[in-house]
Amino acid sequence: MALADFLITLLTFVAIYGLFGVGLNVKYGFTGLVDFGHVAYFMIGAYVTVVLTMPASVQGYGGIGGFDLPALFGALFPGGALVGWFVGIAGGMVAAALVSLLVGVPTLRLREDYLAITALGIATILTAVFENEEWLFNGPFGVRSVYQPLAGVFPVSLGSFTLNMVVLGGLSVVTFLAGGFLVVRYARDAGGRTRALVGAAAAVFVLWYFVQPLLGGGMVELQTNVMWLFDPTAGPEGGLDYDRFFLLFATALLGAGYWWVERTVNSPYGRVLRAVRDDEDVPKALGKDTYRYKIQAMMVGSGLGGAAGALYAIQLGFISPEQFASTLTFFAFTAVIIGGTANNAGVILGTAVFWLINSGTRFLNDFVPSEFSVQLAAARLMLIGALLIVILYYRPEGLLGEQEYDVGVADGDAPPDRTTGGVAGGGTDD
Amino acid sequence: MVSTGLLDALTTGLVTGSIIAAGALGLSLIYSIAEVPNFAHGDMITIGAYLALVFNKPAAIPFLPDSVPLVGTTSLAVAGVLAVGLGATFSAGYELTVFRRFRRKDADLITMVIVSLGLALILRNAVLFLAGSKNVSYATEPVRDVFWDAYLSGFGLTIQLTQRRAGEIVTLAQWGYAWWLAAAILAAAVGVGYAVYRERSAGEGFDVVHLVDPRVLGVGAGLATLLALAALLRFQSGVVADPLASTRVGTSWKDGTVVVVTGLAMLALNVLLKTTKLGKAMRATADNLDLAEVRGVDVDRVQLVVWVVAGLLAAVAGVLAGWSASNVNPNMGFSLLLPVFAAVIMGGIRSPYGSALAGLVIGLSMDLGVYFLPPSLAVYREAIAFVILIAVLLVRPEGLWGDV
After folding, report:
1. B288 at the A interface (CB within 8 A)?
2. Number of CB pairs < 8 Å for A and B?
3. What residue ranges in A7-90 does DSSP mark as E strands?
4. Binary contact (A113, B383; C-beta < 8 A)
5. Looking at the partner chain, which of A114, A125, A378 has a beta carbon nearest the beta carbon of B125?
6. Which residue ranges run through the membrane (chain B) (predicted)?
7. Strands B245-251 and B168-178
């Protein structure tokens, strides 16, 4: 397996769990709600989307459903299948948000530690319900028929082999250049130690991804690595296969979620959320109904978690209740804390670091006898637990720290803010 | 033919409740004095169970080096004591290496929650790493259930002690209590219980704190009287045929030991908290850490003791749970975590006594729920604990007993 394939799997994971983490960040990072039951909304989003897009009668499925939205919309107008899938994912998000509303109404008035334990309990009970009630979503047997949007179109070929290679390969090179540019710009603005850290990480990546195949004499592998979007074995002329397309698709959805959350937190609304987190009495004294804000943040975060669940179902092609254990919630918390609580870019970075540790150490499986695979998995999780504690101790703000916000507190007496060039009312409140 | 009924469910619930109570005692100490909502407590319970396995059945843990001294097959009682000691030592380690540092940094409650979560990940996976994910059980003598079959008939109450041997039900003993005798024993027990309660609660004021709460002592004295009279005044006669009502209760000396060990642990903790200077310091720290420190309490030492005692109690709960279910696995503690938390919150986090009592209530309601609910809902046994917790939080967030 080429490194490019590993990178694609890893990045798809990062996109899916990044979206999951961004959802958690709305609750935990920006509003201060310790939702230890976040995985429940991931599960609900996955199940509802799969059932909404699944054909009506599927062998071996005895639960609710099969509403086959893609076929329904596909019959109406061209391209309707994709629209049908989007309606399905919207259904999953709405279902997740509604369940979180039901959960939130009684629990969000509780103290933060009580909220944590009740949320964990509710998620555990929901998983048990999905596991035991076969009439609901087929119980322990899960759902094997997952609709993959646009699956019939791939592999896409633009024409001849050379054209494919030039266009897709060129696009791949552009992504590397753009990524490199972003990293360099970040490192330039950052302080000395961060710069050294980023430089070291970049050097390791280059050595591992570009130089290591060269040393092995694998020119073909190097070519696959560089032109990661182009798969020469996909179809007669090569082209873009479904895995690569799905990575782009998941990244696009992550981008949409990121944009939505950024818009939310960079608004007066987001300022209230942060005020609820920092000291709930202050927004209350200013006449804000903080309980409503908390419920809304809970619903938004859960909806995003549901969207991530829908993507997860496509990537795996099979869902069953035991995949949605509470460890996923704890992984998301770890990712959020590594990257930087209340920092959306940080959450995605944290997810990348987390999955790099979690999947990147999988190559060790080749060197360790297979009977020790349980030990290896356990050692990995111990490492993650230790990392969580160490980060909380030495760098509680995470790798990136809390992000800066566009929206400031309107304050007539304050001197003009430097960063915004003295626009009235501008400024950052953190 | 007799069948099991409500009384049997109550007995099972008492055993479940005792295990939950043992876990809840330790958690409530950490929660109230160290101010850590300790999500690692479930895994501390697992660690305790596995530590006993190290001494009791080393072969079950593949990664154990063969040449470690002291490691060998010992009886569960010895292994349990060693495990409890080691569990307490480990727990001191968590305080010294992790929680003390975070307390020095004035970490808030949520940070503590997440730190304990990280510790939970480490502990659970350390168990997975060293012992694998198999279900194992302690090497003990097999324990046979004894059935107490009670028959109510025109004669009175008849109790038959039976046991299943090689598929056959064998009657071990039969005692009869005529109506008047049963009524007299019950009346005497209630009388003694009430008298003890009146006697003890008479001089109670805010300046007099009893070692054992008069209510608990009253109930205990009543029960003791009941059992003693029933044992003394048993007659061989009795009527089993055509009973008005009959029920069967299955117990074993294993169940009895679980309840008694938890009871002793509660009593020991009670003595520590109420009669020693250290206990006074612990209660003062729970009340107000800064004030206690100003008054010369060595807060670090108190916290260390809290973690040691909590680790000890967690190990007790782990060994009892593993023995009682004849099953030790890496997830056993985590599945106990929710009921234990439910008990602590229900009892009011500041009150170890409340938590223990709430642990019993939750264990009882889990098994009574399984008894009363239709069989298709029996899989939601743990959910029952949870529904109770949410109900309590909505109605009385300070716990049922408040600050006791």
Report:
1. no
2. 116
3. none
4. no
5. A378
6. 12-33, 45-64, 76-97, 109-131, 177-196, 216-236, 256-273, 304-326, 379-395
7. unpaired
Shortest distance between the Cα of A125 and any Cα of chain B, in A, equals: 6
* Strand (E) or helix (H) holding A297: helix A290-316
Cα distance between residue B138 and residue B52, in whole Å: 8
For residue A335, which residues of chain B lie inside 8 Å, CB to CB? none
Neighbour-count burial of B68, counting CB atoms closer than 10 A to its CB (0-12 exposed, 13-18 middle, 19+ buried): exposed
Residue linked to tokens 């179809």: A235
Sheet holding B146-152, edge to edge: B168-178, B156-165, B146-152, B245-251
* Tokens encoding A135: 């009439």
Name A288's Cβ contacts closer than 8 Å, sequence gap at least 6.
A272, A275, A276
Longest dimension (CA), chain A: 70
Mean pLDDT in residue range A354-377: 78
Q: Containing H/E element for B170?
A: strand B168-178
User: With 0-12 CB in 10 A as exposed, 13-18 as middle and 19+ as buried, what is B150?
Assistant: middle
From chain A, the residues in CB contact with B341 under 8 A are: 117, 121
A110-113: which pairs have CB atoms within 8 A and are 24 or more residues apart? Answer: A110/B393, A110/B397, A111/B397, A112/A32, A112/A33, A112/A34, A112/B109, A112/B110, A112/B113, A113/A34, A113/B37, A113/B109, A113/B110, A113/B113
Instruction: Quote the tokens at residue A227.
Output: 């032109």
* Residues B19, B41, B341, B375, CA torsion sign: negative
Which ranges in A340-420 belong to alpha helices (H)? Answer: 344-360, 373-394
Structure tokens at B298: 């060595």
d(CA A36, CA A105): 16
- Minimal C-alpha gap between B125 and chain A (Å): 5
Q: Concatenated DSSP letters for B176-222?
A: EEEHHHHHHHHHHHHHHHHHHHHHHHTT--TT---SS-HHHHHHHHH
Task: Give buried/exposed letters for A256-290 (b at 16+ CB in 10 A, else e).
Answer: ebbeebbebbeeeebbbbbbbbeebeebeeeeeeb
pLDDT 10s digits, B233-274: 887 777 777 788 888 888 888 899 999 999 999 989 988 988
Token pair 């010895």 is found at B78
Cα distances from A33 to residues A296, A404, B110, in angstroms, run 12, 20, 10
Q: Each residue of A88-137: pLDDT tens digit?
A: 999 999 999 999 999 998 888 888 888 888 898 899 889 989 998 888 88
Query: Looking at residue A166, what is its pLDDT?
Result: 84
Nearest to A42 by CA among A341, A293, A311, A339: A311
Q: CA of B213, closest CA in chain A: separation in Å?
A: 29
| Beta carbons of B121 and A113 less than 8 Å apart | no
| Contact flag A333-B114 (C-beta cutoff 8 Å) | yes
In three-state secondary structure terms, B175 is strand
Note whether B113 contacts A116, CB cutoff 8 Å. Answer: yes
Contact (CB<8Å) A382/B122: yes
**B119 has a pLDDT exceeding 80:** yes
Question: By CA distance, what is B391's nearest residue in A?
Answer: A106
Residue with tokens 């791939």: A154
> Tokens 């230890």 belong to which residue?
A36
Residues of chain B neighbouring A387 (CB-CB closer than 8 A):
118
